[in-house]
Write a structure and sequence with these properties.
By secondary structure, the protein is mostly helical. The protein has 2 domains: 188 residues, no CATH class; 47 residues, no CATH class. It is 90% helix and 0% strand. α5 packs antiparallel against α6 and α7 packs antiparallel against α8. It is rod-shaped and about 135 Å long.
Length: 262
């Protein structure tokens, strides 16, 4: 959830910018700038509040982090509810353009949640629920066929399209960067694996060369040592037969040393 909180807090300016665009669209559709920007003020206040809770959650350590996280979660949910409430109002009171704008705003909210909060499934589901519920309710709302200014309606719908496309483009760029990062990490991991395998092969080759060297040296030493042992035993027997005990003992020591080397 920490990564999702960082992404949510860092996207504050972006969300405020798109919120301004949606507020402008709502003002055109409702033909009331007071209504549009009154709602925008409420959204910005709630968004600023959940950003403050987000900073508090990120800075908190220890046992109090869980409670800070819960407050941040419900603060974000409240902000989304305030945002989603306008989508229902637009769908019911804004005529055709209002319904189009409302759907685009709700869809943009879902894209935003999926884009920034996918790393925390519970967080994502809680904050995605209001917009999803609004999309499900909209088809059952009474459609107002009142007289609306076509130019204002088109401008409002265009603001909704622009805001939605902005979220889609950002999602595409974000996913592209993530895929690039994953590919880079995967390539680096493969390179490290290949380097480790090469080092292992070098070590095995060195061990094999060492073993072969020792085998050759052992074979080369065994033949003369066997000869030394044989001659020493003959000398020992001859010296013992002649009663020359000291020389026989020396020959015995030579034999023992040679056997030890084998």
């Amino acid at each position: 959830m920490l990564a999702a909180a960082r992404a949510h807090v860092s996207s504050l300016r972006w969300r405020m910018g798109i919120g301004t665009l949606f507020a402008l669209g709502a003002s055109f559709v409702l033909e009331s700038f007071a209504a549009g920007f009154g709602w925008f003020l409420a959204v910005m206040l709630s968004t600023g509040f959940d950003a403050m809770l987000g900073h508090s959650y990120l800075e908190t350590r220890g046992k109090t982090r869980n409670s800070s996280g819960a407050l941040f979660l419900w603060g974000c949910a409240f902000s989304v509810i305030v945002f989603a409430a306008m989508t229902l109002y637009l769908a019911s009171a804004g005529g055709g353009p209002g319904r189009v704008l409302g759907v685009l705003m709700a869809a943009s909210s879902l894209v935003s949640v999926m884009l920034f909060l996918f790393q925390a499934p519970v967080f994502m589901l809680v904050t995605a629920a209001p917009a999803a519920v609004c999309l499900l309710i909209m088809p059952f709302l009474a459609f107002e066929h009142g007289i609306h200014n076509e130019l204002y309606g088109a401008a409002g719908a265009a603001c909704g399209v622009a805001g939605f496309l902005a979220y889609v483009v950002r999602a595409a760029l974000y996913n592209g960067r993530m895929v690039t990062g994953l590919r880079t990490a995967n390539r680096a991991a493969k390179e490290r694996q290949m380097d480790a395998e090469a080092r292992q092969l070098e070590a095995e080759e060195a061990n094999r060369a060492k073993s072969e060297f020792l085998a050759v040296m052992t074979h080369e030493l065994r033949t003369p040592l066997n000869a030394v042992i044989g001659y020493s035993e003959i000398i020992q027997e001859d010296m013992a037969a002649e009663g020359r005990k000291e020389l026989a003992d020396d020959a015995s020591r030579i034999t023992g040393s040679a056997r030890h080397l084998l």
